[in-house]
Specification:
553 residues; FAD/NAD(P)-binding domain; seven-stranded mixed sheet; 18% strand
């Protein structure tokens, strides 16, 4: 049964991840557009949403965000997109703990102290370290041009990024080998590679530079959890006549006379047609052209998909704790637990439950007042290891699936116990998500969390521009940008900017408007510094009174 929605909107956005919401917010504020956002899940936000079990709450994808210190350009954009009502808590100093079998290196929360700590530990590498930080800034500047190039014709984008292209496309491992003699220093410098999912042996130095550079001023977490990003942005969109609808799984994009004219979505087992002169997909390039576009359209994009290599998926162990982890010496920072210093060695393909490294952190310590306390262990996985259950139904995948999940959870805990013996005793509740979880709730290609691998092909040959070969169909999200919260945020700037004005002028307008809004807010508030609260704040974070949401499969 079909019916057509009579409400008219200026644009439809497929998917409510931060890239889609940011695009909608910016179009609403900058151009007065009424934007409809359609989300397949029962909650808005994509990987920024939270879920609960009993009294516990976890973030699914927001663990820390860089460049959220008050007044930074990225913070200005974030405040503009979300309406400026979000408080960002510092993770503290240090905010990263790189834990190796032989030694732990704690990363301070500002660049001068980071350099000083590295020079103190590796005094013979001082000149190389100073040059490294200069190179990081070069890559940050280069990636700004690369981003803007997403709004331009291919030839202009190529011209814009020609300067320092060789360094940008250089293999990260190659750069580190040339720059540093000490293998442990190379391991420390590259320890944040899971933030974009591609190890040094495969990644381009530009991705290392932009992601590592994003955390030179520490890490931050939104008070109330990642879900506040969607909640605040939704208000901005709806206050300007737009709408954000959940449980709308887009089945296909309507293309008439070569133009995108709307979408067909499934809601309560019925097909509903929504029409608008502009369609923007935040579902990823592969899903957009591999599943949503009719055959015969997007030939160029389909050729790109055939060349691409998917990035990793994840296993995540969500844990509720019996007591405050600070009693056992933990803090709000990230713990990166590595079994060895060589990030490039591949896991045994015959032992998919082998864990050589993981992320380990305590979300409740970043959200002061949240109790009971929680923790997460995250390790990369591949959907092929779970492929035998691809065609099974959610929550009915069978006992063998549950047994594999249990074995995987034990492997993750065993790895943590290598570094923190006795941690198991703190666990009151645990639940594992797998690559099938990602596929079920996001429909991501191969269950990836970052899209394609972050190599030189993602920078050039396989890059996803904002405009597509289908008229009036545009892309946003991390495919347009880079992995992570800020990557998705800035993709919204690029997509909205493309629709506002050509040749990067729309992007410039957004950035200037964000700066003006920041100055106005600072003047109104009188004391801008109060916007960032320390991680040890005693302010209570109210948990949403929503029903439990199933994310485990």
């Amino acid at each position: 049964m079909k019916n057509e929605q009579t409400d008219r909107y200026d644009a439809i956005i497929i998917g409510s991840g931060l890239g889609g919401l940011a695009t909608a917010s910016l179009l609403a504020q900058m151009a007065g557009k009424r934007v409809l956002v359609l989300e397949r899940h029962s909650k808005l936000g994509g990987f920024t949403h939270c879920f609960r079990r009993t009294h516990h709450e976890w973030d699914t994808g927001v663990h820390y965000v860089g460049e959220m210190q008050y007044g930074s350009q990225t913070r200005q954009v974030m405040d503009f997109v979300t309406g400026g009502g979000i408080q960002w808590n510092s993770l503290g100093d240090p905010f990263e703990h790189f834990v190796f079998p032989q030694e732990t290196f704690d990363l301070p929360d500002n660049q001068p102290d980071i350099l000083a700590a590295l020079v103190k530990r590796f005094p013979d590498e001082q000149a190389a370290l100073e040059q490294y930080f200069r190179d990081i800034q070069k890559m940050r500047d280069w990636m700004v041009r690369w981003y803007v190039g997403k709004t331009l014709p291919d030839w202009m984008a190529s011209l814009l990024t020609m300067f320092r292209r060789r360094m940008a496309t250089m293999n990260t491992g190659e750069y580190l080998a040339k720059q540093f003699r000490d293998p442990f220093l190379r391991a420390v410098i590259a320890a944040q590679w899971p933030d974009f999912g591609t190890p040094p042996s495969d990644s381009s130095f530009a991705f290392h530079g932009i992601v590592s550079g994003d955390f030179l001023n520490g890490g931050y977490f939104p008070a109330g959890g990642g879900t506040v990003l969607a909640e605040h942005t939704k208000e901005v969109i709806e206050d300007r006549g737009g709408a954000c609808l959940i449980n709308r799984s887009v089945k296909n994009i309507l293309i008439e006379n070569g133009k995108a004219t709307g979408v067909v979505a499934i809601h309560k087992e019925k097909e509903v047609t929504y029409r608008a002169p502009i369609v923007i997909s935040n579902a990823g390039g592969v899903i957009t052209f591999g599943k949503l576009c009719p055959e015969g359209h997007g030939i160029r994009e389909r050729q790109r998909i055939a060349r691409m290599t998917p990035g990793p998926s994840v296993n995540v162990l969500y844990m509720g704790l019996k007591e405050d982890p600070r009693k056992h010496g933990f803090d709000a920072g990230n713990y990166w637990l590595y079994a060895r210093t060589d990030h490039n060695l591949e896991a045994d393909p015959n032992n998919p439950e082998q864990v050589d490294g993981c992320y380990f952190g305590f979300g409740s310590l970043r959200n002061p007042g949240q109790e009971p306390h929680t923790a997460q262990i995250i390790s990369f996985s591949e959907d092929r290891h779970w492929a035998r259950w691809d065609n099974t139904k959610w929550k009915r995948r069978g006992e063998d699936y549950e047994q594999k999940k249990a074995a995987t959870a034990e492997a993750l805990l065993d790895h943590v116990e290598l570094f923190f013996p006795g941690f198991r005793e703190l666990i009151d509740y645990q639940e594992l998500s797998t690559p099938l979880t990602v596929k079920t709730f996001t429909d991501h290609w191969h269950g990836t969390i970052y899209g394609s691998v972050c190599n030189q092909h993602r920078l050039y040959r396989d890059r996803w521009p904002v405009k597509t070969s289908v008229k009036n169909l545009y892309l946003t999200g991390s495919d347009v940008g880079i992995p992570g919260v800020n990557g998705a945020l800035m993709s919204g700037v690029m997509t909205a900017g493309t629709l506002l004005a050509p040749l990067g002028l729309g992007v410039a307008r957004i950035m200037m408007r964000a700066e003006r809004e920041h100055k106005r807010r600072a003047k109104d508030e009188g004391n801008a510094s109060q916007q960032v609260a320390p991680a040890v704040s005693t302010q209570s974070a109210k948990l949403p009174n929503s029903q439990e949401e199933e994310v485990n499969v």
